[in-house]
Amino acid sequence: MNDSTWSTSITQIKPNEIRIRGFRVEELMGKITFTEAIGLILTGEIPDEKVTRMLDAILVSSIDHGVTPPSTQAARDSATTGAPMNASLAAGILSINRYHGGAIADCMEMIQDSLCRCSEDNPKSCNSSSVEIARELIISYQASKKRLPGFGHRVHSKDPRTTRLFMLAEELGIAQNGVAMIKTLQNVIGDTGKELTINVDGAIAAVLVDMGIPNDLANAFFIMARLPGLVAHVYEEQTTQPPMRDIDVKLHRYNGPEDRNYTDEKHE
Amino acid sequence: MNDSTWSTSITQIKPNEIRIRGFRVEELMGKITFTEAIGLILTGEIPDEKVTRMLDAILVSSIDHGVTPPSTQAARDSATTGAPMNASLAAGILSINRYHGGAIADCMEMIQDSLCRCSEDNPKSCNSSSVEIARELIISYQASKKRLPGFGHRVHSKDPRTTRLFMLAEELGIAQNGVAMIKTLQNVIGDTGKELTINVDGAIAAVLVDMGIPNDLANAFFIMARLPGLVAHVYEEQTTQPPMRDIDVKLHRYNGPEDRNYTDEKHE
Amino acid sequence: MNDSTWSTSITQIKPNEIRIRGFRVEELMGKITFTEAIGLILTGEIPDEKVTRMLDAILVSSIDHGVTPPSTQAARDSATTGAPMNASLAAGILSINRYHGGAIADCMEMIQDSLCRCSEDNPKSCNSSSVEIARELIISYQASKKRLPGFGHRVHSKDPRTTRLFMLAEELGIAQNGVAMIKTLQNVIGDTGKELTINVDGAIAAVLVDMGIPNDLANAFFIMARLPGLVAHVYEEQTTQPPMRDIDVKLHRYNGPEDRNYTDEKHE
Amino acid sequence: MNDSTWSTSITQIKPNEIRIRGFRVEELMGKITFTEAIGLILTGEIPDEKVTRMLDAILVSSIDHGVTPPSTQAARDSATTGAPMNASLAAGILSINRYHGGAIADCMEMIQDSLCRCSEDNPKSCNSSSVEIARELIISYQASKKRLPGFGHRVHSKDPRTTRLFMLAEELGIAQNGVAMIKTLQNVIGDTGKELTINVDGAIAAVLVDMGIPNDLANAFFIMARLPGLVAHVYEEQTTQPPMRDIDVKLHRYNGPEDRNYTDEKHE
Asked: Which of A34, A151, B240, C218 is deepest in the core (most CB within 10 A)?
């Protein structure tokens, strides 16, 4: 057994005093947004306005994807048996793994590996050599029959979230080598005649690389983003469906608000 | 078995189109904050600026409470055995129940019961009668030896989050009968000579009553708020502590950033 | 905070010594069955041969129910996303609640309530009065539109596990008032012309009442029994199906061993 | 989306008929033990008497280890917050990973690798070469600073479960190359002067290798074995401890049955 003192640097608690990374929580309340608080608790500093807007976009992008994802199905399977909210959410989160939401860390690693090789091979002209590196990488994945993390989607051939994330990353000056490298990978794939486009995991991965977020936190972003969506599904299941029903995902019908546009232009 | 079509009103998915409560997700990205998206996905409408600021304050208030809460301990217990991030988070969420984080729904119900009795008994002069109702309620809880949900904390005798939440709720014009009723309850308890103050669960409960959030969503707010804190703890455990350690919570030491003030005044 | 010493009476650990309820574990290994050890750890004593055989029958009865139960679906939903075994099992267990596997405790309570009323009303002639009590109970459930726990099944109109459990309980001399009462309830329902038969949860509940198992342990029996079934499904999913597949339960086909008889007569 | 029919070979369900791997469940009830049913559902066949006795010993060996393991702590952390039984068990199971209970699969792989190299290098005289292979393996683990899976325990320097498992495996004629190889590994470690003995995970791993159980099922054996122990702890927590207590594992005191001997000799 290990009896020695251990350290934590997240939150300090004293009677009637709660300090998050050094700040009194009541001083932050009403002043910073939840997204800024997420940045603070994960990195130790309140992110600046641009990073915050990028984080908001990432979190909004993945907040929900309807009833078909395995995490949503597992959460509803749990809810229909009478589980409380937290247990249903846990079942959902347990269904976010390598093949669903969990490709972000793998894709970040792939991008970082590529960037490493890039800088080693040809430090001054990464652009010219990156195509070569991308080709080698894709050939090695094909040879070992591994899925390319961050590419392809069972519903979307051209994911609208990817386009928007890259646009924002450019606009906010966040896009750097990571975004460039994954786009190179996509181009190289396109050259081979395959239609395999960057999915939202891949786009988030590239942006997180450029934001300097550690890989080990990557999948947590998807989980944090998706949690409110899971809450909405569990609540809908609990309040509108009979218990112990046979959930046939194929037979669902959307009957929510009709198509509408968001016209508030406050950020642009 | 039940083969009939079932309805969902949260998100509509078509190839290359994702609509959250009617809005294209890519239109929301970069324009609304994560908190606004949480409001949208849970209620169907993007909350206005005041409600958003209140929601942000609620979510920030509960983002973390150091290493001692059972949810944090369970998440770290899981992480030290080598669990991946999502499994550790699930273990943490499974430890958020009636006696930790989960009193919000119970407290909302208690407030709503009191308000109901108030309006039935004396519809025109709730203020004068609410003290009577509060007295009866407290006597009935004492008689049945039930804990009063939303009151008392094992560390804080005067929770700074409670004070700040009520201040903001007043400032933003959100505080109504719910906040008034829980304050009445506290005053009545104070008159009996006991020192039992409103904790953060109680404060959130009162504000959610006044915002019209359904009780069944109440505990989800605590879970959504606390998730980033759990992420930070699991990440810290994974990256700074040896595996399979004997976690003695009493022996922890805070070694994070020193006390600092948040001086950005952008909201005030 | 509470610093006082707390007690546990399950297992005593010293260096190189593990005592389960007083017994050295290595003395039990090779001598008692897992089921006897389950009895020991839960009740403090090794059950006798008849009780052990009854426990075995209960555990065997609920070991699996194919791919359709929500717990199996949630476990497979988790597995298909790449979750490790333990996370998939946890997702499955989280989907065992009031409406699936979790009716055992509710049904035990209903039986015990009925037995209580029975002995209060008419201590000497429970048999004659139990029909009356059963009638009242069913009327009260119908009036409040509550499901009768332990009755009905979405697939089986006459559950073969129920028949067998009752037969064994009679044969082993375990069936007492609990089994009698649930059969009375079934008869009374039959008299009303409804076809609602005792399901496996109800049968287990009645037998557990007669074995004196506490209600709070009831659902645990279903969870312990079903765990190996969940293991088999997760393993089958991991080893025979592609990742991130769209699991349509309706489209499954059984391709396992053909119908066969168990001819070993060692117990009879 | 993939609409094709998929196969399962575990359990076939028809109205009023449940067949486990081909057998009617009611025919198995009362005839086979739970352990035999576990063997059946996992492998497709009812294990013979010797294998069943070995499986029983494995399951009994790991049924509980007192209050200190992380899985027990996580389950109690969850229970003290008011979680239902199944959620507390899930939290416990989520804390069974690589460094706690989860070394079985890793150790099996290590043993199998060693056996492979053994037969490749020197097919006819494995015994003489296995020491060499064990030495190489240990040097490579030391070089990469990896833990040797299945060796060492934070409480036991000589685990009584290990000794008993090996004794039974010999007695039942189950011990083969797997048990031999892990013993060779231990001897080679002993020669280096280190005191690192085979723990229960290692012993189970060696026996499972010799029983031909697939690696991917290995950790499931520990989880199935430990579940009843977790049930006992959650039940004890729920029924004997106050809610939301501060669980200090160091301050626990065993107050269960005194030391006693198991004198039933029915198997020997």
From this structure: A34
What's the pLDDT tens digit per position in D114-125? 898 876 655 444
Radius of gyration of chain C (CA): 21
Q: Do C96 and A87 touch (CB under 8 A)?
A: no
Report the 10 Å Cβ neighbour count for B202.
29
**Is the torsion defined by CA of B72, B74, B75, B79 positive or negative?**
positive
Supply the DSSP symbol for B241. Answer: S
Least confident of A123-137, D30-44, D106-120, D190-204: A123-137
For chain C, the average pLDDT equals: 91
Exposure of B244 in the CB half-sphere (CA atoms within 13 A):
16
The 8-class DSSP code of residue D265 comes to -
- Position D3 scores a pLDDT of 52
Spell out which residues of chain D touch residue B95, defining contact as CB-CB under 8 Å. 74, 77-78, 81, 83, 91
The string of pLDDT tens digits covering residues B39-73 is 999 999 999 999 999 999 999 999 999 999 999 99
Output the pLDDT for position A127: 53
By the 8 A CB rule, do C159 and C197 touch? yes
- Sort residue B97 into left (φ over 0), alpha (ψ -120 to 50) or beta: beta
Distance separating alpha carbons of residues D149 and D215, to the nearest angstrom: 14
Q: Of C56, C160, C242, which has the smallest distance from its Cβ to D17's Cβ?
A: C160
CA distance D83 to chain A (A): 9
Q: Write the residue in D74, D82, D246 that is nearest to B74 by C-beta.
A: D74
List the single best residue of D77, D86, D95, D99 to mutate versus A (max A Cβ within 10 A): D86
φ/ψ (deg, to 5) at C114: -60, -45
Distance from CA of A77 to the nearest CA of D (A): 15
Q: What is the mean pLDDT of residues C158-172?
A: 97
Degrees, nearest 5: CA angle C63-C69-C72: 70
Selecting from B84, B87, B154 the residue whose C-beta is nearest the C-beta of C1 gives B154
**pLDDT for the residue numbered A146:** 86
Nearest to C87 by CA among B237, A93, D234: A93
Which residue of A lies nearest to D3 if distances are taken between CA atoms?
Answer: A250
Of B5, B64, B91, the CB nearest to A41: B64
Answer for the pair B84, D66: CB distance below 8 angstroms, yes or no. no
pLDDT at D145: 87
**Torsion sign (Cα): B51, B53, B54, B60:** positive
Identity of the amino acid at D84: P
Q: What is the pTM of this model?
A: 0.93
Residue D257 DSSP SS3: coil
Q: Which residues of A121-144 are buried (b: 16+ CB within 10 A; e: fewer)?
A: eeeeebeebbeebbbebbeebeee
The single-letter code of the amino acid at B198 is I
C-alpha distances in Å from residue C114, one per residue of B175, C83, C163, D43: 48, 45, 22, 43
Residue B98: closest CA among chain D residues belongs to which residue?
Answer: D82
Residues of B in Cβ contact (< 8 Å) with C88 = none
The reply to whether residue D33 touches residue C19, judged by beta carbons under 8 angstroms, is no
Query: Measured between beta carbons, which residues in chain A are less than 8 angstroms from residue D154?
Result: 1
Q: Which of A112-116, A128-132, C42-46, D138-142 has the lowest mean pLDDT?
A: A128-132
Q: Where are the beta strands (DSSP E) in chain C?
A: 6-8, 11-14, 17-20, 23-24, 252-254
Q: Is residue D168 within a helix (H) or strand (E), and if so which, with residue range?
A: helix D160-171
Average pLDDT over residues C173-196: 91
